[in-house]
UniProtKB/TrEMBL annotation:
Membrane-traversing stretches: none
Alphabetized UniProt keyword annotations: DNA-binding, Phosphoprotein
Residues carrying 4-aspartylphosphate: D51
PANTHER family (UniProt xref): REGULATOR OF RPOS, TRANSCRIPTIONAL REGULATORY PROTEIN CUTR
Domain (Response regulatory): residue spans on this chain: 2-116
SUPFAM superfamilies for this protein: CheY-like
Species the sequence originates in: Streptomyces katsurahamanus
KW DNA-binding (keyword) present: yes
InterPro entries: CheY-like_superfamily (IPR011006), OmpR/PhoB-type_DNA-bd (IPR001867), Sig_transdc_resp-reg_receiver (IPR001789), WalR-like (IPR039420), WH-like_DNA-bd_sf (IPR036388)
Protein name: Response regulator transcription factor
Keyword Signal: no
Length: 218
């Protein structure tokens, strides 16, 4: 899941990003509304964590424009206000959820996961193919009953392949879904991650490379 954190308090933004990355999200961070709109126009985010009081372009306007653009991103708005009127106003702009500062990080993660499930076609909590079983809730992988420890990126790549249900997934699509904007688009990181993933999955290769197209699970 790819998340855009829009927060002008830089220490808070980086703390949220670091925690979310630890939870397995690909996270980009910007500190003003103008940058938020630029990023949302370029990348397909699942969730935007949007502070309401932003410089350059107010969070309300960012939300309004994002919704008006037809982008499929879900908006979780952050605010210091606790009034019902403020929350109703934010939801009226098209925000999908509202979280008041200060908040518990565990609640932020739970709300992002819930919104992420709404931003993409629903999938079962357990994905299975080729003897591989991926539990999206427990974040566990087994193959033919054998537990396989994976890194966060390996897990994200495997989840995207399983979601595709046998259809090929391009390297570009994997970069977009599993990495943040800091990755070099010409890097070999997808190839390196795929090599490591295949090694961990063991003998009788299950991930197929389609030259010039991408990867798929048979």
């Amino acid at each position: 899941m790819r998340v855009l954190v829009v927060e002008d308090e830089e220490m808070l933004a980086e703390a949220m990003a670091e925690g979310l990355r630890h939870e397995g999200f690909a996270v980009d961070v910007v500190h003003d509304g103008a940058a938020a709109l630029e990023n949302a126009a370029v990348h397909a985010y699942d969730v935007m964590v949007l502070d309401r009081d932003l410089p350059l372009v107010h969070g309300d306007e960012v939300c309004r424009r994002t919704v008006a653009s037809g982008a499929e991103v879900r908006v979780l708005m952050l605010t210091v206000s606790t009034t019902v009127a403020e929350r109703v106003a934010g939801l009226g702009l098209g925000a999908d959820d509202y979280l008041t500062k200060p908040f518990a990080f565990a609640e932020l993660v739970a709300r992002i996961r819930a919104l992420g499930r709404r931003s993409r076609p629903a999938v079962p909590p357990v994905l299975e193919r080729g003897g591989i079983r991926l539990d999206t809730h427990l974040r566990q992988i087994t193959r033919d009953g054998r537990y396989i420890p994976l890194s966060r990126k390996e897990f994200a790549v495997l989840e995207e392949l399983l979601r595709a249900e046998g259809a090929p997934v391009s390297a570009e699509a994997l970069l977009e879904r599993a990495w943040d904007q800091n990755v070099d688009p010409f890097t070999t990181v997808v190839r390196v991650t795929m090599r490591s993933l295949r090694r961990k999955l063991g003998d009788e290769p299950v991930i197929e490379t389609l030259t010039g197209v991408g990867y798929r699970i048979r």
